[in-house]
Specification:
- By secondary structure, the protein is an alpha/beta fold.
- It has helices at residues 19-28, 44-53, 75-85, 105-122, 134-148, 162-170, 187-195, 225-236, 240-255, and strands at 3-8, 31-37, 57-61, 89-98, 126-131, 153-155, 174-177, 201-203.
- An eight-stranded parallel beta sheet has the order 1-2-3-4-5-6-7-8.
- Helix 3 (75-85) runs parallel beside helix 4, helix 4 (105-122) crosses helix 5 (134-148) and helix 6 (162-170) packs parallel to helix 7 (187-195).
- The longest helix is centred in the middle third of the chain and has 18 residues, at 105-122.
């Protein structure tokens, strides 16, 4: 069984001491590729160095909505540079809207649109963070699609309602579920996971955050994506090997990941 963790943050200090052991564990669990999501340009260099050490690691470049205040005139160029020069860059992001405690919603929208344009120009998919902002996210995407055409991408660590889930499926997005779907009180997310078509489903850890049951409360790591896959297979009434196959195929198609020889 092969799995792809489509959203990790292994540049965090919490992995510095034991990254080799973490790597060994994800390989033992059949995780054959990972997509590391950068949240600011300051992370790009370290992430490239990690990818030099880990042939299964690919990454995205972008600016997280909670860091929208950092957007300056040249930041778009800082995103474009690695996206055009490093073949391991497979997406723009993590980007999007986070209105949970935001007082800069209009600015977030402008930064989001700017990164959508970069993705459109470079023909790369987007990795979207959306928290308490589904209505505005839908509106911005529909407007952008109408003006410039559709952008491919994924709603990562999805926590929306089934109705919101359908909005983004209709916009052409894939939907990715993290360990949150395994939480006992995550009934809304579980209902959403049951309506996503097989060819639109992805899995992730979002490590080091949000470890799935039965690892909840521990540092999350890519090996634990196997628990997300197992839970989703049971929830959706699907064979685990089949779910692993189609989520892996979906990730490779969206991010144009190569099929690697045995690592």
């Amino acid at each position: 069984m092969q799995l792809i963790d489509t959203h990790v943050h292994i540049n965090f200090d919490s992995f510095d001491a034991d990254l080799e052991a973490v790597r060994d564990r994800w390989r033992e669990q059949g995780v054959v590729q990972l997509v590391h999501s950068c949240v600011t340009p300051a992370e790009f260099t370290k992430t490239q160095k990690l990818a030099d050490l880990l042939p299964e690691l690919f990454f995205s470049v972008g600016l997280h909505p909670l860091d929208a205040k950092l957007w300056e005139a040249d930041l778009g160029d800082q995103i474009r540079a690695p996206a055009t020069s490093d073949k391991r860059v497979v997406a723009i992001g993590e980007m999007g809207l986070d209105f949970f405690k935001a007082d800069n919603q209009e600015w977030q929208v402008e930064v989001f649109r700017s990164q959508l344009q970069i993705a459109r120009d470079l023909d790369l998919p987007v990795i979207i963070h959306c928290r308490d902002a589904a209505v505005m996210m839908r509106q911005v995407c529909e407007q952008f699609w109408g003006e410039f055409g559709q952008v491919r991408g994924v709603m990562h660590c999805w926590s929306g309602t089934p109705e919101e889930t359908q909005w983004f499926l209709d916009l052409g997005f894939l939907i990715s579920f993290s360990g949150v779907v395994t939480f006992k009180n995550a009934t809304q997310i579980q209902a959403s996971a049951q309506i996503v078509p097989a060819d639109k489903l992805l899995i992730e850890t979002d490590c080091p955050f949000l470890a799935p049951v039965p690892k909840r409360g521990k540092r999350n790591e890519p090996a634990f994506v196997s628990h997300v896959a197992s839970y989703l297979a049971q929830l959706r009434g699907e064979n685990l090997d089949l779910l692993a196959d189609f989520t892996t195929a979906n990730a490779r198609e969206l991010f144009k990941l190569p099929i690697l020889s045995t690592i």
